[in-house]
Amino acid sequence: MTTINHTGVSHTVFHMLGIPGLEDQHMWISIPFFISYVIALLGNSLLIFIILTKSSLHEPMYLFVCMLAGTDIVLSTCTVPQALAIFWFHAGEISLNRCITQFFIIHCTFISEFGILLVMACDRYIAICYPLRYTTILTHALIGKIGVIIFLRSYCTIFHIIFLLKRLTFCQNNIIPHTFCEHIGLAKYACDDIRVNIWYGLFVIVSTIVLDVLLIFVSYVLILCAVFHMPSQDARHKALNTCGSHVCIIILFYGPAIFTTLTQRFGRYIPPHVHIFLANICILVPPMLNPIIYGIKTKQIREQVAHMLFAEQKWTACNYC
Asked: Which pTM does this prediction carry?
């Protein structure tokens, strides 16, 4: 890209189009966005409330689930309301600083979710291989420190990109065909050389997401080795069942992300609106389905939800009588 600012103008305001080519369908597209956001917000809030208020759920696994639910709420709230504003009110104008802030929060949250999934894999390894020492190894103090480390890792890796974007002169088009801001999606409108941005973005992906995937894979290899050395079939089944929810979340989270990356890299002939749809699926689907999966597959959480619902119905019936 040229390093000369031919116009002498650097855009400080951008206009987001939402899903390009489907502007006349935005009102219909907003329906699944809105429903997904409401389910994600209510489901994850309920999950956090149940885990924090029930002392029986103050175990390491559930505290990590609580962290995951919190990041899901942040991720959804940072993106979906703006998309709905574009769909409903054509409010696509966004300042450069606000765009960078949104990008920063989205990417920090994504890297935090990957980190939490890695820690949850390690949690399952400790629970299966060292069951008697499980709570003594993963104390509440250690879990708190892990949470801080996850946040600091995501913050420190993404923070530098702010300065990489701030140094650029945005003298090209200021129309962003998307529902939210992203690093390279914004940098490509600069007249400066963005190779540093590209290489640093690749470094962030390799040092966080790729590394986390490898460590999760190693964790599950060790888990499977330990499970298959268990003497009874019931013990093996119970051990694998405790990993079911986590495996579902990993597939749900990594699947769309990998597929989206591959289509962006190799899908030259795929229409732009398909790329935008896939990017939004990565934002919408995991936060919506995470509380549902843990609510269905985790017996303790399922029992607490049922207890709350039936207790509420019983209290209402008594008042009515």
From this structure: 0.90
Q: Which of 123-127, 142-146, 276-280 has the lowest mean pLDDT?
A: 276-280
Dihedral over Cα of 264, 283, 257, 285: its sign: negative
- For 9, the token pair is 């103008």
Helix residue spans in the chain (DSSP H)? 26-53, 60-89, 96-129, 134-137, 140-166, 183-187, 195-204, 211-228, 233-242, 244-266, 272-297, 299-320
Instruction: For residue 175, give the 3-state DSSP assignment.
Output: strand
- Strand-pair category, 175-176 with 13-16: parallel
With beta carbons less than 8 A apart as the criterion, state whether 114 and 153 touch: no
**Strand, helix or coil for residue 309:** helix
Q: Are 102 and 77 in contact (CB under 8 A)?
A: no
> What share of the chain has pLDDT > 70, as a percent?
92
CA distances from residue 149 to 100, 111, 158, 187 in whole angstroms, order as listed: 23, 12, 14, 29
Tell me, letter by letter, the H, E, C secondary structure of 212-240. Answer: HHHHHHHHHHHHHHHHHCCCCHHHHHHHH
**H or E segment to which residue 279 belongs:** helix 272-297
* Distance between CA atoms of residues 308 and 301, nearest Å: 11
Rounded to whole angstroms, the Cα distance separating 194 from 192 reads 6
Give pLDDT tens digits for 302-320.
888 888 777 655 555 555 5
How far is Cα 275 from Cα 265, in angstroms, rounded to an integer? 11
Instruction: Provide the β-strand partners of residue 93.
Output: 15
Helix (H, G, I), strand (E, B) or coil at 94: strand
Bridge partners (DSSP) listed for residue 94: 14
Give the SS3 label for residue 178. Answer: coil
14 neighbors 174 (Cβ within 8 angstroms)? yes
Residue 135: which of 206, 69, 62 has the closest Cα? 62
With b for 16 or more beta-carbon neighbours within 10 A and e for fewer, the 83-121 pattern comes to: bbbbbeeeebebebeebbebbbbbbbbbbbbbbbbbbbb
Sheet containing strand 93-95, edge to edge, reads: 93-95, 13-16, 175-176
